[in-house]
Queue: 2 jobs
Job 1
Amino acid sequence: AQKITQTQPGMFVQEKEAVTLDCTYDTSDQSYGLFWYKQPSSGEMIFLIYQGSYDEQNATEGRYSLNFQKARKSANLVISASQLGDSAMYFCAMREDPQGAQKLVFGQGTRLTINP
Amino acid sequence: EAGVAQSPRYKIIEKRQSVAFWCNPISGHATLYWYQQILGQGPKLLIQFQNNGVVDDSQLPKDRFSAERLKGVDSTLKIQPAKLEDSAVYLCASSLDGTGGNEQFFGPGTRLTVL
């Protein structure tokens, strides 16, 4: 079974609009963490935002916020006021704690294209 | 602060040949990861080191892939012999200690093409 599901293979958004990228996860652990990474065409993975399973407030980092709904097991990324430079692949990832290995499991990604 | 360094950036080899990739993590980062990213997919963890010890290599095809991290700093990933399905980007990442919200910092990757 997929641990991380990103159901939107591609998204097209007008510049300056807000965009929500969906992510659902599957785990039976009580302690876990959720990450979002951006991968531009250059290929490097850039960390955007982190949400711990015990964090009560939704994480925010500048224009990025994470809409964390624990009961629904969803961790959607919201980008406000999108910019042309936001065009990239976006990956949701989960850190589980299987015997302390702290490994990250990534979703398939969503390709975001910002139109001028 | 210097980021994660990887070399080479690109490599093209014939199937059944050997290849090695090198990674230098961010100074002071105890945890080092190697990922394989096949085109159109998310990265898949191959191996995770804590200092110079392996903590997870459950998805490393050990019949052909090997990795080491001598002295707990630099790391090399080797494929011998390569198969067509090994064509992918190999990403190295490091984090402070692999715990909590400490994010992983990624290098630029090595794009491997096996012909």
Note: Chain B is about 0% helix and 50% strand.
Job 2
Amino acid sequence: ETGVTQTPRHLVMGMTNKKSLKCEQHLGHNAMYWYKQSAKKPLELMFVYSLEERVENNSVPSRFSPECPNSSHLFLHLHTLQPEDSALYLCASSRTRGNNSPLHFGNGTRLTVT
Amino acid sequence: GNSVTQMEGPVTLSEEAFLTINCTYTATGYPSLFWYVQYPGEGLQLLLKATKADDKGSNKGFEATYRKETTSFHLEKGSVQVSDSAVYFCALPSGNTPLVFGKGTRLSVIA
């Protein structure tokens, strides 16, 4: 039990599909995040939610659409993706958005866009 | 914004060798500094952290000291094991961004 659970672990989708990634945290944290991890690139912060409100959107294309229905759940809705969107998508949570609050990561969803 | 630079990998060591992975930072003020580790097929896990200058973070035999004179936070371990094979990330917060990560250093330990 990592505290942060992501499903599915692997996903293969075509460019015209619509799919969603799910993240659930069991730690009572107030902030949740989506990161993208691509080979040979630093982790890229995509979205930040604090107390269910989106507080940061780092110029992510609109084909990625986050949703945070409550403080325990975070979704990333995907549609009309491109092959370059293939990556490991990591969800994380922290007690607060504060600088000293460590991030707890899930094991990620490995996404392949064909 | 704040940033980190860590040594390029991969690093390959024999079991029981000494490990150093270099990390230097550029920051406004003195933010907390972190090392995370990513084992194969998993997400990132916090390995250790230091919250102020001269602090030493330690965990599982790994250590890193927050040195403001050299703006460094190098990761060290005296005797690595095969189970330490993973990717190691140096990180620090930047503005409202929770953490900015280095590119990661892949460590392979061979028996």
Note: DSSP finds no helices and twelve strands in chain B.
